[in-house]
Amino acid sequence: MTTESDLSYPAHWEADVVLRDGGTARIRPITTDDAGRLVSFYEQVSDESKYYRFFAPYPRLSDRDVRRFTHHDYVDRVGLAATIGGEFIATVRYDRIGPDGRPASAPADEAEVAFLVQDAHQGRGVASALLEHIGAVARERGIRRFAAEVLPANSKMIKVFTDAGYQQKRSFEDGSVHLTLDLEPTAESLAVQRAREQRAEARSVQRLLAPGSVAVIGVSRSGAGVGAAVLRNLRDAGFHGHLYAVNEAADTDLLDGVRAYRSLAGIAAPVDLAVIAVPAHRVPDAVTACGEHGVQGLVVLSAGYGESGPAGQERQRDLLRQVRSYGMRLIGPNAFGVINTAPETELNASLAPAPATERGRIGLFTQSGAIGIALLSGLLRRGAGLSSFVSAGNRADVSGNDILQYWYDDEATDVALMYLETLGNPRKFTRLARRTAAVKPVVVARGGRHTPAGHVVPGTRLPDATVSALLRQAGVIRVDTVTELVDVGLLLAGQPLPAGPRVAILGNSESLGVLTYDACLTEGLRPLAPLDLTTAASPENFRAALAVALASPDNDAVVVTAIPWVREQELAGDLAGALREAVAAGPGKPVAVVHVELGALAEALSPGRAQPAAPSPRTPLTPGTSQTPEGPESAPAADPAAAPAVPPAADGVQAGIPAYPAAERAVRAIAEAVRYAQWRQANADAGQVPEFEDIDEAGAAAQLAALLAGVSHDAVLTLSEADARTLLARYGILLHTTLPAPSADAAARAARVLGYPVALKTTAPHLRHRADLGGVRLDLTTEAELRRSYEELTELLGKPQELLPVVQAMVPRGVDTVVRCVIDPAAGAVLSFGLAGVASELLGDTSHRLVPATDRDAAGLIRSIRAAPLLFGWRGSDPVDTPALEELLLRVSRLVDDHPEVAGVSLEPVVVATEGLSVLSATVRVARPPARGDLGPRTLPSYPGY
User: Fold this and answer.
1) How far apart are CA 675 and CA 500, in angstroms?
2) Could you say which residues of the chain have pLDDT below 70?
3) Which residue in 665, 944, 660 sits closest to 826, CA to CA?
4) Which of 228, 229, 350, 691 has the most crowded Cβ, counting Cβ within 10 A?
5) DSSP one-letter string for 48-111
6) Dihedral angle sign, alpha carbons of residues 189, 190, 192, 196
């Protein structure tokens, strides 16, 4: 909302946020046009709240007050408002002050802050959200501390400040509580912010999946069409809440046996969730009706939005803007719907006909309706059940990140399956996935690895292999197909995690056992010799052999292979019962069954054919152990290493034994479970981002500000060698001395300064780091050798002004490596490591981690490349100084993480010797930082162009 008098209006401060109760609000700067809104807002605030704000009775705002509170320079005086439906529900402002407490300008770095929240919206977390945003604004404007005066009786506002996690001082002066908050983010403040984000976003999804009432808008009288289909599915699934049908032409009280209304306004009761199934041009009217009726969330099935071209993308932007203006959340548009199988809800607000799925322990999220249908069909066919299902379509609002927030502490979900075409905000996704994977498996199949033309979600420049590596770093189980998604999900939902990679194989076919053995080797597992029970084996023989394998300390998982008998149908049930009996007696290891043309066996082993168990509390499982009740007060997320794998039975849902029609599929599922269990054990301690006492963060910030002064917002500046050297030195990264050599005489003088032996190098962009082209001469011990090499270089490659030669003193010999950090538009800052030359450039032998990297990440970076043995004494060579290399990686990570202005760092080569290392060359690129990042205040993502 910019006016002529608000030429400096900071549009990037606008943000949509999710509040504590799951509703949304918009935060934006207050402008001169807001006088009427401010007065109306103030009139709805109670006298008590006004007293707490002004420390005296203050029934109304004077004209002077209104002008003061709506006119800001957005530097020394800033006001923000939280709005719903365009109207204020809360305000916050700061005024910069000097040491004497009077109004001041920069460089004063303290400001007085004050809040006012409408009584009807108190308790929703509005003030906490405003504090995060006004704090980010203040830091952007050079303010480092907030001061606040609060009456002792105003306990709610005191709690807002004390719970924020900032370092603070508190005193009692002149009858009020004086609080001073240091706005520098701390580990505690970040943890508080993310915990609030998780609770709010999880609650917003919970309101969508567990509504007390649902209205379907667009139900045809004929019973045909999308709206009528959803209404029938809701009815047939046995939805426990109130159900309404809406059709503006309804001429009867009932549609498909459900109470019908001509408009939403005709429903005299609250409506929590509305499913909109009308043509796109009628959706805005439906959204308006929902907003005015107080609906909490929408599922928009209607197509014709972002998937249909530029006009549809604009229509989608308008839809999101309209939905959020009413504080609602949106699934869709172009959605397939949602399912919640919880016995107290039984919601099927989707196009999947009943029975869409059985109740189970798997959560499923898809971006594609077609893939959603395929996955639901596959799970139903194999007898697996779901806890919840969301097919979000175009994801204008609710995305996979929101669903992960919900699943994180959803006790009904033990495994999260996700089909994603894009990651949207990969940095946030990997952060959420890492946290969720610490307590339950997250399995992801990615489609659209290459962003198609016209796609509305920005893609990533990173290779798919790099994206996979980053996902695996976060504990995500990455699979390639939807078939593998189901295969892995079934195993993880029904079996404990393996304690290691040792696999026992038994069955009635030697050949099938050998195939399974080979598949295990291919996946990096350690198979034992297959046990051939022969084709004459009975179900009892299978039971006995499986019981022995499960009791043996020599294996961590078991694969049972089976080929048909003559009387398959008669024996399939007996064999399934025998296998179940053995597993029940020894439940500590995962078991998978490989069957060839034994469909009846797969059906008999499915969860749907098992006898339901009595409800039991969800209890932790450590890989390789059996379920041990610890009582209802157990905290499953307290110890990530011991967090629940997946209990065999919970809440009356009985797990089956997963069966696969091919050995490769069963073994791949077990291998993924093994790798995930290893990740869980290794990441019980996620590591720390170290503090370095010699870092000059303030000096680096000042240098970057000076370098970027006058640089346009879309420009990227490559620093000169001198500027790069200075910036890196502020973070303890020292560049090896380099002296220019524009002539042979200059090269000789440089060598005398540095001392022999020296190296002569070209630094022209087309020759840099290309020793294979002859642009480097090493170990020059005399001036004569140096001059001869200089002459050879210029005769072979060009004139000195083209080659830009330099001279460096020789460094101790070691292994040449490359350290880089790049900013990807989707993934954020990515730290990379590899060996210099062919290994990384031609073979792609490079490892990656997200910034900020921990000490564990740095150690893993070095050890993850295939050529890592060269660093650790391969073939009798001396090991190099890997601790020094790890420290260098951490310092680069800190530089990029502390300063978003740094757009890229490349250190090449870094020669790592047996003691210490030398950085011979560096390239640093800088640019103006984005307005907000994942480390900024909580905010919902904006649709492009919103």
Assistant:
1) 9
2) 1-7, 354-357, 424, 426, 448-463, 565-571, 598-600, 607-655, 768-772, 825-827, 839, 930-936, 942-946
3) 944
4) 350
5) HHHHHHHSS---S--HHHHHHHH---SSSEEEEEEEETTEEEEEEEEEEE-TTSSB--TT--EE
6) positive
